[in-house]
Design goal:
The chain has 15 helices and 24 strands.
């Protein structure tokens, strides 16, 4: 492939060499450069890839894309662009043959609900014969292949590579989580989404190396709606106007408010034999009853979002209803069937905001007791520990403080920080540093009608201690505890 084919959609200046140069691979990691590569210099927050130009030239790079003035090496094509991240996105799309044009692309952005909604959409579409890939926080799914994720939204090269793999696998569509960071750093630039979706917005990801303030966070979220054909929005959000600012897409809304295009009516909480969920009626663009075996008002929003998306694929109502009834997402209010006496669930809530939302939702189901088990990660802000401790002590009847990922800290030091927050409210608590022992304590002491939530780990299947990740899956721990204590299933 010639350089000119890769950069044809960019504005650029040739500083050395020429656009006719043939290249073999496109890379932004200097360690992956080989003879014939084109290397894109990304100015990162930790290292500036422009520093590695001598190294990649020595390795045999044919061309280099820069966004700064550099000393020009001999016998190498050097092309200058305004933004090398944006250039990487467009070049990646070209390198893989513009795969997004061969798929129906759905991008979902928002503070909460992205992960669950992507799985709901995939489940509904596939039930109707529409082969659908997924890219998100937990994993990427291409046909039968599941790839664990490092970021909510991968770098642009990887996004295009996954799209290409999906096309090669014969998939029809892809649904993906789109983070504010991804939009800010052009990870999803270089193509137009068929459908863009906004779930909700709350203060998050604000700070060093993320967003300078809430306005910047909201602005980055809004960028999705300048690169999609149809925008589907939570019409109940107080931030809708800010998200719509500058939009270029067709607009459709969903929510509880009757002014929305798709409306949730007659919402009821469902509590049966240890299972929790919601029931409601959809009105507006579609008209039918819905039942979801995932608790909380946010399950109404998540499922309503999925319905709004799948409506545009012509999925029959019965297929939507059936898929939503059986959908489950690993580590997102994931109910683990143990006994009908009480409800045991696993959730990823790992900060005060998400824990408060979760516990407030579960209290609506009027449990005998609400029991919350959690820990906090080491080498992270102590404020999170105080805040989570206070939230749990305020909302849960019993808080079980245990270990999460202690990393390079002593588990008891972290637990003692959490207890500072716990003591600010008046909930009962116990401390059990070993997570398996803590879970066993919850199960052995659960009373009829209790809701027991294991918070913080969610989909994670490891515990990080002193820089080493040790395998630890809470589902496996629960199974081990039951094998050791068979009476717990009664």
């Amino acid at each position: 492939m010639k350089i000119k084919e890769l950069v044809k959609e960019l504005e650029y200046e040739v500083l050395a060499g020429n656009e006719e140069a043939e290249v073999t691979t496109l890379v932004c990691d200097s360690r992956k450069v080989e003879k014939g590569s084109v290397f894109v210099c990304i100015s990162g927050s930790v290292r500036d890839a422009h520093e590695f130009i001598p190294d990649v030239v020595q390795k045999g790079a044919t061309a280099i894309i820069v966004e700064k003035d550099v000393e020009l090496p001999e016998n190498v094509t050097v092309i200058k662009v305004e933004d090398s991240r944006l250039a990487l996105a467009y070049m990646s799309a070209a390198y893989f043959g513009y795969p997004a044009k061969k798929l129906k692309t759905i991008g979902i952005t928002g503070t909460k609900g992205k992960t669950t909604t992507t799985y709901m959409v995939k489940s509904i579409l596939e039930s109707s014969g529409i082969k659908t890939g997924l890219i998100g926080t937990i994993e990427s799914i291409v046909g039968d292949k599941r790839i664990p994720s490092a970021n909510t939204t991968p770098e642009s090269y990887r996004v295009q590579e996954l799209f290409h793999e999906m096309v090669e696998a014969g998939l029809d569509a892809v649904v993906m989580e789109v983070s504010s960071q991804a939009l800010m750093l052009h990870r999803v630039s270089g193509f137009t989404f068929d459908i863009g979706v906004f779930t909700n917005l709350e203060p998050d990801h604000i700070g060093t190396n993320e967003h300078k303030d809430f306005a910047d966070y909201m602005h980055c979220k809004s960028l999705l709606f300048q690169q999609c054909k149809l925008g589907i929005f939570n019409g109940d959000s107080e931030h809708l106007e800010g998200i719509l600012k500058g939009h270029t897409c067709q607009v459709e809304t969903f929510g509880y408010g009757k002014e929305n295009d798709l409306v949730a009516q007659n919402v009821q909480l469902k509590k049966e034999h240890g299972a929790l969920g919601v029931k409601y009626h959809v009105a507006g663009l579609m008209n039918f009853d819905v039942e979801v075996n995932v608790p909380g008002s946010f399950s109404v929003y998540n499922s309503l979002t999925a319905i709004a998306i799948c409506h545009h694929f012509g999925v029959p109502v019965e297929k939507i209803k059936e898929a939503l009834l059986h959908v489950s997402v690993k580590g997102r209010i994931e109910i683990v069937p143990v006994t009908k006496r009480y409800t045991l669930m696993i959730d990823y809530a790992h900060n005060a905001m998400s824990l408060e939302s979760l516990l407030t939702t579960l209290k609506e189901y009027e449990p005998g007791r609400l029991v919350c088990l959690f820990g906090c990660g080491g080498n992270r802000a102590k404020s999170r520990r105080y805040e989570m401790g206070e939230v749990s002590s305020k909302l849960a009847d019993l808080t079980v403080v245990t270990s999460d990922n202690p990393r390079n800290e002593e588990p008891m030091d972290i637990i003692n920080d959490i207890l500072v927050g716990v003591h600010k409210a008046n909930g009962e608590y116990v401390t059990i540093p070993d997570r398996k022992e803590a879970i066993a304590y919850c199960m052995k002491n659960a009373q009829d009608g209790d809701i027991v939530v294991l918070a913080g780990k969610g989909h994670e299947d490891y515990q990080e201690i002193r820089g080493v990740k040790h395998h630890m899956d809470e589902r496996e721990l629960i199974a081990e505890i039951i094998r050791e204590n068979p009476d717990l299933k009664l």
